[in-house]
């Protein structure tokens, strides 16, 4: 029986707290037009629908781009409105629009809640720009580090290693690792007292921050056999001894383990470093023999063992 009882069909779900979204390219402009309606309830429904559309990848850019042509949304909804700016497309649209200037006016708004949300957004944008600049500097320094070094790059980047934002710490440590591959930069890292800061980052909660810091130390200790270089040895050994049961998490730590092994190999070339590492030889051997161990890590561990056990 192919007959269909229309009464049994499920009706379209209509959320009374949302404004209906029309079809076609004029749907989003229509919602923005409702934001200036005198009816407060209608404005809130339109804003709720726009916030929902920012989670649609196909409409996100259009929502943000269209929104920059209108005045800033009601301050009570500012927090919801700014959430989608965490998306890359929305950030690009926001950077190319005059909306940031309007947001700056909200810093003096009478409402404490509005001021708090506006300050939070401004801080996020500033941190994003700093992380992007550091990432760009890191890429450029891999090709030619001389321009960065001639403009006090080690000192300026070193100040960002202790930033509260993990993204900035990660990019700063990555830029420092890119710079420290040449001898001049290695010397500047030592002279600017950057090594102690990098050592502190080895205990960071972000694995990528730890890996980049270990990479910078790996490059620098090639010329450094002083007291501090040996002081960082226990931390590197601790990182080497840590293992994660999760395969993916252990794979994320691969760069960290490799850089730690190579740093230990350089430290073993100093007599005191070799003496201390001989006491930890079982740990190094344990990383060089198991077949289930990553091949690159086994190779780096065997090199470390050979250097530590070398005798004239």
From TrEMBL:
**Top-rank taxon:** Eukaryota
Tell me the Gene3D superfamilies matching this sequence: Leucine-rich Repeat Variant (1.25.10.10)
Which Pfam family name is an example for this entry? Answer: Arm
InterPro entries this protein is in? Answer: ARM-like, ARM-type_fold, Armadillo, RSP14
Protein name according to UniProt: Radial spoke head 14 homolog
Gene source species = Hippocampus comes (Tiger tail seahorse)
């Amino acid at each position: 029986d192919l007959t269909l009882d229309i009464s049994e069909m499920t009706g379209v779900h209509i959320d009374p707290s949302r404004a209906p979204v029309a079809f076609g390219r004029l749907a989003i402009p229509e919602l923005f037009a409702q934001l200036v309606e005198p009816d407060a309830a209608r404005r809130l429904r339109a804003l709720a629908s726009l916030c929902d559309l920012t989670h649609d990848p196909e409409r996100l850019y259009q929502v943000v781009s269209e929104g920059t042509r209108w005045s800033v949304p009601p301050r009570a909804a500012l927090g919801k409105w700014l959430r989608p700016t965490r998306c890359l497309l929305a950030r690009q649209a926001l950077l190319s629009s005059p909306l940031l200037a309007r947001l700056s006016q909200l810093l003096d708004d009478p409402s404490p809640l509005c001021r708090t949300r506006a300050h939070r957004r401004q801080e996020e944008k500033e941190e994003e720009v700093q992380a992007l600049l550091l990432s760009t500097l890191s890429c450029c320094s891999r090709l030619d580090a001389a321009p960065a070094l001639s403009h006090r790059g080690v000192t300026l980047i070193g100040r960002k290693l202790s930033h509260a934002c993990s993204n900035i710490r990660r990019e700063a440590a990555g830029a420092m690792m890119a710079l420290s591959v040449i001898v001049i930069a290695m010397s500047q890292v030592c002279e600017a007292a950057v090594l102690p800061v990098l050592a502190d980052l080895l205990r960071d909660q972000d694995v990528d921050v730890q890996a980049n810091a270990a990479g910078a130390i790996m490059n620098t200790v090639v010329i450094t056999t002083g007291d501090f270089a040996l002081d960082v040895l226990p931390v590197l050994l601790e990182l080497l001894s840590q293992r994660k049961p999760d395969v993916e998490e252990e794979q994320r730590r691969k760069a960290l383990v490799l850089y730690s092994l190579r740093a230990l190999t350089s430290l073993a070339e100093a007599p005191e470093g070799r003496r201390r590492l001989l006491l930890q030889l079982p740990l190094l051997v344990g990383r060089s023999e198991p077949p289930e161990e990553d091949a690159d890590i086994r190779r780096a561990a065997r090199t470390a063992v050979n250097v530590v056990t070398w005798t004239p």
